[in-house]
Amino acid sequence: MSALSLSPLHFSAEEIAEVVELYASNPEYCCAAGEYDPENLQADRVEADLREEAGTEGCKVLLARDGQGQLVGLVCLLDRHPTDCWPWIGLLMVHGSFHRKGIGGVLTNLIEERFRSEERNGIRLAVLENNPAALTFWSSLGWQEIDRRADRQHGRPCIVMHKQLT
Question: Which of 101, 102, 77, 105 lies closest to 91 in space, CA to CA?
Fold first, then answer.
């Protein structure tokens, strides 16, 4: 696999089309999250949601591309969560055609290194309780469950996970 790079989403029409296709390639996530109908994804809604995310203080929406420039994933990072001050991964989504090929692990390593370089000693995320595949993925990478609570935006039951970076 080629090296991956992360770059900010610039919201061009081409990028939004790629991101909508990325979401469509993950129908299980769309159903678990309950935010999107994977059979009828609305590009304007996906764009509006990502613009809101990108407009949040300390939040970055990043596209993951392989060496040929193909979109392989999307990452939303939050520098400092408002309730616990830890950096968080708000979303890490890999294109469905690249599942189980190591891309999620490579992206996670890039994110962890990014926060290590900023001398952050840990990072957090929340996994939807109704998404056991995601829980298995994060656990396999050394993340540990530290809490269970509803997410702030939609009130969905989540498992909060933490990974020490030092």
Answer: 77
Name all contacts of 17-25 with Cβ < 8 Å and 24+ positions apart: 17/43, 18/63, 18/71, 19/46, 19/47, 19/50, 19/63, 19/71, 19/74, 20/46, 21/71, 21/95, 22/71, 22/73, 22/74, 22/93, 22/95, 23/93, 25/95, 25/96, 25/97
DSSP state of 3: P
Residue 102 token pair: 């190591």
Mean pLDDT in order along the chain per 10 residues (166 residues): 86 96 87 74 91 94 96 96 93 93 94 95 94 92 95 87 95
What per-residue confidence (pLDDT) applies to 152?
78
E runs forming strands in the chain = 5-8, 59-65, 71-78, 88-94, 122-128, 144-150, 157-164
Q: What angle, 0 to 180 degrees and rounded to 10, lies between the N-to-C axes of helices 13-24 and 43-54?
A: 100
User: What is the pTM for the complete model shown?
Assistant: 0.91
Q: Which residues pair with 71 in a beta bridge?
A: 65
Q: What is the pLDDT of residue 156?
A: 86
